[in-house]
Structures are given as structure tokens and as C-alpha cells.
Design a protein that fits this description.
Shape of chain A: globular
Oligomer: heterodimer
Number of strands of chain B: 5
Distance between the termini of chain B: 54 Å
Structural class of chain B: alpha/beta
Number of strands of chain A: 0
Order of helices and strands of chain A: HHHHHHHHHHHHHHH
Distance between the termini of chain A: 60 Å
Number of helices of chain A: 15
Strand content of chain A: under 5%
Largest sheet of chain A: none
Helix content of chain B: 55-70%
Strand content of chain B: 5-15%
Order of helices and strands of chain B: HHHHHHHEHEHHHEHEE
Number of helices of chain B: 12
Largest sheet of chain B: 5 strands, mixed
Shape of chain B: elongated
Strand order of the largest sheet of chain B: 2-1-3-5-4
Radius of gyration of chain A: 21 Å
Radius of gyration of chain B: 28 Å
């Protein structure tokens, strides 16, 4: 069942994402369907489905089993629709779905170094004893859901019935329910799922987000710079686990938490979307953040990133001086 | 107003703490300064916008006045250090290093350049030493499976009192076992998720147990440890509150006591007394390092 879980975590978001991208770009037949975009958007869609199932289960008083069933049905229906769209898209124009890297020729040294480091990090996450992160109660919450077959019926840390309840700002977040449902559906122990399997998937998705961002920062053709960027990101994550709020700690020790998924995946992807002026992707990231990490009525870090870039774009348009400062940062070739 | 002053102090202290912990931020600042002052830039339109955003947000986060505004935006839910999530440190640092490598270490010198970057990140980061779980946590993890096995052999709902590492690990492994107090007793951040508070006696019972367990741990490899343990307990009057704590715990519903060797010896007589007075039975089980009492 663990193998099926791995397949589900890798394949399902991909199919959902490719179907979604095909629908979004249905009228732009020359637009290539990107592998990284598809997986990331598919992941965001999965988070959305999980959140809907969680909210229905929480406020409808459903058992965890019923909520998991709801999530399964939603996933199967969405997957079926995505497959139909994908098959239709391939039959219409299969060139859009090729996985070929486009750009300058680059030696194997950089990609292999990066993949090697990713493999080492994945191995570290899988084999090392997990840390107990201060303030994080995800595993206890999932265990309490499974024990009670219910959502927030007891306090996660003690298992006792709560007289005063828990804050809505916390109980409305859907990640623990998704993990509990996955654990139940695939019959995987929660510590293995949460501390070892999910962080590896999150790390892989994070590198996809950075890879996608590299295309925005360097251009599609500059493969050498893009792989160099990825390798340096991997090195930064490897060497920066000193404190709980650093990206390295999130990647290597707490990848299952909402803030880790936000900082490693959603923030880079929001930045990428904002720089490319694909506002719908940025809005999806904001909604995903609201589902998995505490925000002020949906306004969190992704909103600041989006507004920051948007403001700079507006200022650049209207403030000529700022344009001169920005030109200072541009290529000599562009000036000539 | 007092809240704003409190956040201001948090911002000032937090910035200092952040710069001490994350030395890579110094690399980022160096790269940004180098980018601003040293010659023509290579960034395209989008990258230059990303760098400008980084510089602006860096200023907003470091400056205490604007940092307070951001903390208020987050309603003080996150600590100061977490608001650094708004600054794309990893992205900007990796981008700056990539451009530096492209300018100064092209072709055959690229490997040399990468080694230089690795060295810089290594020295300013964790120096290759990843964080590890504490020894007490690892010890608890190695013991908890046998403890859970003993507990599962006994019927009925279990309400547990044990050293904090055991209680923490039991709850992480099995959601069916209840705890008289949770990780929020010793991890204040974990207490942010509920409105419950523990009474004074429970808190004192927790502190007493942890003191005894720590004493046992310190005397583990000492010769004549039994004698030393007894002497220190007498000196600190550690046996006196046992009766009061145990009665409180039994009244609160605790029916499972997992205690290390000598600590179990301290409570055994009192548990026997309680069991006789309440017409209850005590069953005992043993694991490698712990004695488990089941009160029914």
C-alpha cells in the first residue's frame, strides 16, 4: 500500500494539473503544457479538494471515514474528468505535452549534482529520526482523528474532550484531515506518512517550484544558469537547518507542516506567477495558503508577495526615476 | 499601545536573534550590495523586480517600525522570525550566487566557483551538522513500543502519567491513549491551539516527576547510585508531596503510571495504599527501563 501511496502522491496531482492546464489554455493551442506547472497546480487543486472535504466533515459532523470517502469520490471524479480532458488534448495536439528540455546544451554535471543532492536529502528525510518541532501538533492531531474516527472531537495533545473547544482559525485548516484520510485509505502509519513520506514529496515539489521560477528569472533557454540556480537552492536548504523558521529546517525536518509547504512551494510559485503577470496562479496560491497555514482571513505571506510585485510594476509604470534604477539592474545588451 | 510597544521590543530582539542564527543573510546582503555598487548589472526585467522586492521587504522587516506593522498584520500569531518568510532569502541568495558564478567562474573554472560557494554556504550555515533529536527523546522512542505493547494487553481506556518524553512519544504513536497533561505543559507554543489550562497541582506534579527523573538520569552511571538517590531525595524532601500528587492524579482519572526504576520505588507504597482504600487492584508490568502500574 505504501507503493500505491507514492504513486498517488506523484501521479494524481500531475494528471489533475495537466487536465487543469489544458482547460485553462484550451484556446491557446501553441501554449506548451509545462510539467512543473502541471504538478504544482495539481497539488494546489488537491489541497483545495482536501480543504473542502475537511470543512464539510468538520461543520457537518462527519466521521473521518465519511470525510475520507468524500475526498476519495471527489478525487476519482476529478481524475476521471482530467483524464478525459488530457486524452482529448493529446488527440488534438500531442506536441503540447512533450517533456523535452528546451534550451542551450548543458553538460550532465549540474543536473546530476543536483539530482544527487536531492537523492541524499530524500534519504536523510526517510532514514533519520524525526525531530519534534516546538509548536507543531500535526502528528498528535492526526492520531487523535484516527483514534476517534472524527475531526477535532478531542484535544489532540491529551485526547481528552475539550470543554472550551479549539480556535476556529486553527480547526479550519485542512492538512491534518488530509493526512489522516491518506493514512486510513492507504493503511500507512501516521508517523511514517507525516514524518518521512510527505516531506520527501514536498521537497520534490519545492524543487519543481524553484525550477519553474528559474525559467522566469533566467529565461527558458539558459539551462546552465537554471540548473546552477537549482543546485545552489539545494545547497542552501542543506546548510540552513539551524532554526525552525529557516527554509532548510522546513525542507529537511518539518516538510509536512503548512508553513513549510507555504515557504518552500507557494511563495516561490507566487513570485513566479506575479513576475509573469499570471494573476490566476497567484490567487490559487493565496487560496492554498489559506487552507494550510494560519492567515488573517486568507491574507498571508503570498498576498504580500503578490502585492509587493504588483506595486513595483505599477510604480515602474508611473515613476520614471524608478525605471532608471531598474535599468541599472538590466543587461548591457538591452541598453544597447 | 502596550501591545505595540511589546511588538516593537519583539521586533528589535527578533532581528538581532535572526541575524545571529541565519548567517547566510550576511551573504545575501553582500551580494545585494555588490550588485548595486559593482559595475553593470546582468539581471533581466523580472529578476531585477524580484531583487528590488527583496531589498524593499528586507528593509521593512529589519526596520522595527515597519516590522511592527507586519506583526500586526499577522495579529501577533507568528513570532518575529517567521515574518522573514516574506523576504525571498533563498531565492535571492541563489540567484545572486548564480550570477556571480556566471560572471567570475565560467567554463572550466565553474567547478572551482561551485566549491567556493559550497564553502561559503557551509561556513555560514550549519557546517554540515544537521539538527538531531534529543537523546532523551530518542531513548523514549526506543522504549515506547514495549510500553505500548504492555498497555495494549490491559483492557479498558488508559489515562497515562509518565515522564514527559514518554507521554509525548506515546501520544505521537497511539491516539487512543489519553494523557493527564499534554505537550503544552512544557512546550508553550503547543498550547496556542486550545483554551485549556492546567491546575496548580498538576503542574507541580509534572515538575516533581521531571525533577526526580532528571536526578535518576544524572545518577545513572554513578557508583552507589541507590544510596546517592535516597540521600538527595531526603535532602530535597522529594518524598513528601508524593501522597498529595498521587491522590490528585487518581481523582483526575489516571489509571496508568509509567515510571523509571527508582521513581517507581518512591510511589509504589502510596499507590498500594490508594488501591486498598479505593478498592482497586494494581497490576504491574516491566519493560527494560520502566515499571508500569495499572490501577483498576
Amino acid at each position: 500500500m505504501i507503493l500505491l501511496l507514492w504513486i498517488a502522491l506523484v501521479v494524481f496531482p500531475m494528471i489533475l494539473g495537466v487536465g487543469g492546464m489544458t482547460i485553462v489554455y484550451r484556446k491557446q493551442l501553441k501554449q506548451r503544457i509545462s510539467f512543473s506547472d502541471s504538478y504544482l497546480l495539481g497539488g494546489i487543486l488537491c489541497i483545495g479538494m482536501g480543504e473542502v472535504a475537511h470543512v464539510v466533515g468538520l461543520f457537518g459532523g462527519f466521521s473521518l471515514t465519511k470525510t475520507g470517502l468524500l475526498l476519495q469520490i471527489a478525487t476519482i471524479v476529478m481524475m476521471f474528468l482530467a483524464l478525459l480532458v488530457l486524452i482529448r488534448g493529446i488527440l488534438k495536439k500531442k506536441e503540447r505535452y512533450t517533456l523535452r528540455l528546451r534550451g542551450e546544451r548543458v553538460s550532465n554535471f549540474l543536473p546530476l549534482s543536483f539530482l544527487g543532492l536531492f537523492f541524499v536529502q530524500a534519504l536523510l528525510i526517510y532514514c533519520r529520526e524525526p525531530l519534534v518541532t516546538a509548536g507543531d501538533i500535526t502528528l498528535e492531531t492526526v492520531q487523535s482523528f484516527l483514534a476517534q474516527d472524527g475531526i477535532y472531537q478531542v484535544l489532540p495533545l491529551t485526547g481528552m474532550v475539550s470543554e472550551q473547544g479549539m480556535p476556529l482559525r486553527y480547526t479550519v485548516l485542512g492538512l491534518p484531515t488530509m493526512y489522516a484520510a491518506l493514512s486510513q485509505i492507504f493503511d500507512v502509519e501516521p508517523p511514517l506518512l507525516i514524518c518521512h513520506i510527505v516531506p520527501i514529496v514536498v521537497l520534490g515539489a519545492a524543487y519543481l517550484a524553484y525550477y519553474r521560477l528559474s525559467r522566469t528569472l533566467f529565461g527558458e533557454k539558459k539551462l546552465r544558469q537554471r540548473f546552477l540556480f537549482l543546485l545552489l537552492v539545494a545547497l542552501i536548504l542543506q546548510f540552513s537547518d539551524n532554526a525552525v523558521y529557516l527554509d532548510g529546517y522546513s525542507a529537511l525536518h518539518s516538510g509536512y507542516t503548512g508553513v513549510a509547504i507555504r515557504n518552500l512551494i507557494l511563495v516561490p510559485y507566487t513570485l513566479c506567477a506575479a513576475l509573469e503577470r499570471r494573476w490566476w496562479k497567484a490567487i490559487l496560491c493565496i487560496l492554498a495558503e489559506a487552507c494550510i497555514a494560519w492567515t488573517l482571513l486568507g491574507c498571508g505571506v503570498c498576498v504580500i508577495v503578490l502585492l509587493g510585485i504588483l506595486l513595483l510594476q505599477l510604480l515602474e509604470k508611473w515613476v520614471p526615476r524608478l525605471r532608471k534604477i531598474l535599468q541599472f539592474f538590466r543587461n548591457k545588451e538591452e541598453l544597447v | 499601545m502596550s501591545r505595540i510597544i511589546e511588538l516593537f521590543h519583539l521586533a528589535v530582539q527578533g532581528a538581532e536573534r535572526y541575524f545571529t542564527t541565519n548567517r547566510m543573510i550576511v551573504l545575501l546582503l553582500a551580494l545585494l550590495l555588490a550588485g548595486i555598487f559593482c559595475g553593470r548589472k546582468l539581471a533581466g526585467e523580472k529578476a531585477s523586480r524580484m531583487l528590488l522586492y527583496t531589498v524593499v521587504m528586507l528593509f521593512f522587516i529589519v526596520c522595527p517600525v515597519t516590522a511592527v506593522g507586519i506583526l500586526l498584520y499577522q495579529t501577533g500569531y507568528y513570532d518575529y522570525e517567521w515574518i522573514w518568510s516574506m523576504v525571498p532569502v533563498t531565492i535571492a541568495l541563489a540567484y545572486g550566487m548564480t550570477m556571480l558564478l556566471e560572471r567570475k567562474f565560467i567554463n572550466k573554472k565553474l567547478v572551482v566557483g561551485i566549491c567556493v560557494m559550497v564553502a561559503a554556504l557551509f561556513l555560514s550555515g550549519n557546517q554540515g551538522t544537521l539538527q538531531e533529536a534529543e537523546a532523551a527523546e530518542l531513548e523514549a522512542r526506543s522504549q515506547v513500543q514495549s510500553i505500548l505493547h504492555c498497555m495494549k494487553e490491559q483492557p479498558g481506556q488508559k489515562v497515562l502519567w509518565a515522564p514527559k518524553n514518554i507521554m509525548q512519544e506515546v501520544r505521537r504513536q497511539d491516539g487512543k491513549i489519553l494523557l493527564i497533561y499534554g505537550r503544552d505543559m512544557w512546550d508553550a507554543k503547543a498550547g496556542a491551539y486550545d483554551y485549556e489550562a492546567y491546575n496548580e497541582t498538576l503542574t507541580q506534579a509534572y515538575l516533581w516527576l521531571e525533577e526526580i527523573v532528571e536526578l535518576e538520569r544524572q545518577l545513572k552511571d554513578v557508583t552507589e547510585a541507590e544510596k546517592a538517590f535516597a540521600e538527595i531525595c531526603e535532602e530535597r524532601a522529594l518524598e513528601e508531596p508524593v501522597q498529595a500528587y498521587l491522590w490528585t492524579l487518581v481523582d483526575a482519572g489516571v489509571n496508568t503510571y509509567v515510571l523509571p526504576g527508582r521513581t517507581a520505588g518512591l510511589v509504589q507504597d502510596e499507590l498500594d495504599t490508594i488501591a486498598k482504600q479505593r478498592n482497586m487492584t494494581i497490576e504491574t508490568a516491566y519493560t527494560e527501563s520502566y515499571t508500569i502500574y495499572f490501577l483498576e
